[in-house]
Amino acid sequence: MTTLLIIDMQVGMTWPKAEVRNNHNAEETIARLLMEWRHRKAPVVHVRHISRTPGSPFWPGQPGVEFQPALSPLACEHVVEKNVPDAFINTGLERWLHTRGESSIIIVGVSTNNSVESTARTAGNLGFKTFVVSDGTYAYAKTDFNSKERSAEDIHAMALANLDGEYASIISSVDALEVVLPLALSTQAPIG
Q1: Would you state the pLDDT for residue 192?
Q2: Which of 28, 87, 131, 155 could form a disulfide with 119 if both were Cys (CB 3.0 to 4.6 A apart)?
Q3: Alpha-carbon dihedral of residues 58, 128, 139, 183, nearest 10 degrees?
Q4: Keywords in UniProt for this one (predicted)?
């Protein structure tokens, strides 16, 4: 089976101005994937960032830390809380996946060059078959080390390029629904 891993789709991620990010339909794409995973009773993990920096929108108890309502976990879905970008660090995620015999994950969420990239690198290094959905992730504009302004699309594309073929396979949401999920379901061990 392939686990859908949804990273940091929290209320605080909706607060930056729209023009500083790319993939404005990413939330709809993630919701579509989530609906299909739920329909197929495939495993879903929701990752939430809990900041260790007082005043952060992701500090415990702040409204920004809550999941976006359209992407909130069901009671039966696993929730991982992290304090650093990588969802595997000090969270038990690796153990949770191994205990259930999960060997592949599809990653969606935010931001491509931060939590998504960090988590995908570790997943690949741990031996998980890792997929990152290009249209189910997004990034924010950023100034590079040489003080040059980079668009959100440039940041997104570079993060995906950093991962592709070495740590993960970069796929579209169409590929996730039409190729990866059906293949995972067809190779699932029978229950009983």
Answers
A1: 36
A2: 87
A3: -120
A4: Hydrolase
